[in-house]
Amino acid sequence: ALVYSDVSAQMQRLVCPGFIRDAGEWLSEYPRYTEAALIRLEKAARERGRDQMMMQDVQALEARFDARRKSERRGAAEDPELVAFGWWIQELRVSLFAQQLGTQMPVSVKRLEKRWE
Q1: Integer Cα distance of 53 and 83 in angstroms
Q2: What tens digit of pLDDT does each residue of 47-106 get?
Q3: Buried b vs exposed e over 27-57: b needs ≥16 C-beta within 10 Å?
Q4: Are 32 and 94 in contact (CB under 8 A)?
Q5: Which domain holds residue 35?
Q6: Total structural domains in the chain?
Q7: pTM above threshold 0.90
Q8: Are 113 and 98 in contact (CB under 8 A)?
Q9: What angle do CA 111, 28, 5 make, to 5 degrees?
């Protein structure tokens, strides 16, 4: 059930009001993100412990991202680095849950944590 709610939350992040306008060049990656989520759901039953461990890493990064984004929304324009970080999290999901699909750039939890600093 945790996997399904996480995938549902991921899809809500991707397909939110204004996503076609806001996604820009990343819109072409949506089919890969969706396929990665489906692969993850297929694997989840047999790799539950592994999935939950990776999901915790992703959710920790998303929580920091969401908190920063919420605090910066009060200002004018969004920070391009922060916006990019959100897409890197999507790439991390592909890397962790459906590695065979490949990513746009090298990503890992450690790399994203380092970029966050």
Answers
A1: 25
A2: 889 999 999 999 999 999 999 988 876 655 678 899 999 999 999 999 999 999 999 999
A3: eebbebbeebbebbeeebeeeeeebeebbeb
A4: yes
A5: 2-116
A6: 1
A7: yes
A8: no
A9: 65
